[in-house]
Amino acid sequence: NFTPNAFVEDCVKELQEKVKGDKVVLGLSGGVDSTVAAVLLHKAIGKNLYCIFVNNGLLRKNEFENVLHQYKDMGLNVKGVDATARFMTALDGLEDPEAKRKAIGNAFIEVFDEEAHLIEDVTWLAQGTIYPDVIESVSVKGPSATIKSHHNVGGLPDYMKLKIVEPLRMLFKDEVRRVGKTLGIDPELLGRHPFPGPGLSIRILGAITPEKVRILQEVDAVFINGLKEHGLYDKVWQAGAILLPVNSVGVMGDERTYEKVVALRAVESTDGMTADWVHLPYEFLMKISNEIINKVKGVNRVVYDISSKPPATIEWE
Ligand code: XMP
């Protein structure tokens, strides 16, 4: 029987014994796991925890600024690094999903490595790895490893020579949320939907351009804010929008348009391994579709993804 209070107490003690007076670096993603890991470590070792939050330019609209503020308000010692230009260069011309994931993973490692080197005498790397990540990284040794490469586990190269500390390694997601609640983390942050490490890059099918990122950020913001306003956000496990690599014909007044199509996706799931599409109310879908087409320049058609996993995956790439 898991008790978050006892976990926090034991974990803080263990971290203090393990890390002692050493410095620890941790990459924050804005997600639940890395945030809870950071707050636990902060409780244990205070200012010896150095957090780095990288903007890869593929986050949700205004996410970098908002989350960075939130982290600072929580008392974390966090450095925000805007590496958007670097990621855009790394992605330039790439169309293949796996190539995009690799480019982003490599760019992240480069940026993180540079930033970690600026911290004098840092000896530990902390990660928000949770139990399902551990299981998954063990089980993806076979041919299925090539289906999708995840960058969360063991993502950093050996040459960094940092010792690894993973305080959430034995916990399931719901336990991580309960620990976060005990630690006083904002319930809104703890209830956030999962978001993939490569961010919007795998929701822009094909090659990435700054303009496509802008369009998708706007569409996604309308959808996610709409879910929140209609009390639907917490009923959905994960939601987002996908920018399709096709144009479709439309009419606007007397003019013919030829613009982008976006797909909306919302799923119910417990662990992401299987998922059902959510039966969002038609009224809600109608309102969101109108709002997207009216507000977001460059989009003239919205479709809703009614595929479950398996066989469809949650992400389209
Ligand atoms: P799929 O598309 O495989 O997604 O059904 C299952 C869950 O994993 C997330 N996902 C990723 N997360 N890096 C990540 O950190 C990735 O490359 C990646 N691909 C998929 C997806 O958002 C969903 O929550």
Automatic annotation (TrEMBL):
Binding site for ATP: S29, G30, G31, V32, D33, S34, T35
Annotated metabolic or biological route of this protein: Purine metabolism; GMP biosynthesis; GMP from XMP (L-Gln route): step 1/1
Enzyme Commission number(s): 6.3.5.2
Top-level taxon of the source organism: Bacteria
GO cellular component: cytosol
MF GO annotations: ATP binding; GMP synthase activity
Domain GMPS ATP-PPase span(s) in chain numbering: 2-192
Enzyme class, spelled out: ligase
Record key words, sorted: ATP-binding, Glutamine amidotransferase, GMP biosynthesis, Ligase, Nucleotide-binding, Purine biosynthesis
Keyword Cell membrane: no
Catalytic activity of the protein: XMP + L-glutamine + ATP + H2O = GMP + L-glutamate + AMP + diphosphate + 2 H(+)
Description of how the protein assembles with itself and partners: Homodimer.
Function recorded in the entry: Catalyzes the synthesis of GMP from XMP.
Protein name: GMP synthase [glutamine-hydrolyzing]
Record organism: Flavobacterium sangjuense
Residue window of the full protein shown: 192 to 508 of 508
